[in-house]
């Protein structure tokens, strides 16, 4: 098994009102109606064709201000340590975030999507967009491990994961 580095190029940038980690919603469900924009770079705009009609899209992005990776974290919604990969904490070996956001408007020509429910910091580099398809992406009543038995019920980030 080779461990070759992988390089990704951003396809755009996500603008949001969240300038600081503290106070930023920890997932889109906690950011209901918070507006942002996706700005897709000119060379990728043709790929937006046919995205109209999808109520939500997955945004896959670089958590570019995350601190160095930790394999054991106290997640926002808990008070005890959990294995990183059982959490959505931002301090990951590959700092990739994903959010299913609502699409209000799509303009293929300018490459701008007006979106709602944003939980990422302003100027977050965008790596990919995929349509959210309920039939593919929603498994009702799936078990959610420790999250089904919460110690805390926090929706908004504090400063436990320092950012750069
Ligand atoms: C818990 S993570 C979840 C992100 C995404 N929804 C996921 O599940 O991959 C969300 C938190 O990460 C932090 N965050 C958001 N965008 C970031 C960025 N670009 N760099 C570093 N931290 C970020 C904010 O504190 C935000 O509340």
UniProtKB/TrEMBL annotation:
Q: Name one GO biological process term.
A: methylation
Entry-linked InterPro entries = TrmO-like_N, YaeB-like, YaeB-like_sf, YaeB_N_sf
The residues the entry assigns to the signal sequence are none
Boundaries of every TsaA-like domain copy: 8-141
Source domain of life is Bacteria
One annotated GO molecular function: methyltransferase activity
| PROSITE patterns the UniProt entry points to | TSAA_2
Write down a Pfam family by its short name.
TrmO_N
Kindly state which keywords UniProt assigns to this record, in alphabetical order: Methyltransferase, S-adenosyl-L-methionine, Transferase
User: Which protein family is named in the record?
Assistant: Belongs to the tRNA methyltransferase O family.
- Which PANTHER family does this chain map to? TRNA (ADENINE(37)-N6)-METHYLTRANSFERASE (PTHR12818)
This protein's name = tRNA (N6-threonylcarbamoyladenosine(37)-N6)-methyltransferase TrmO
Tell me what organism the protein belongs to: candidate division LCP-89 bacterium B3_LCP
Recite the lineage of the species.
Bacteria, Pseudomonadati, Bacteria division LCP-89
Query: Corresponding gene?
Result: tsaA
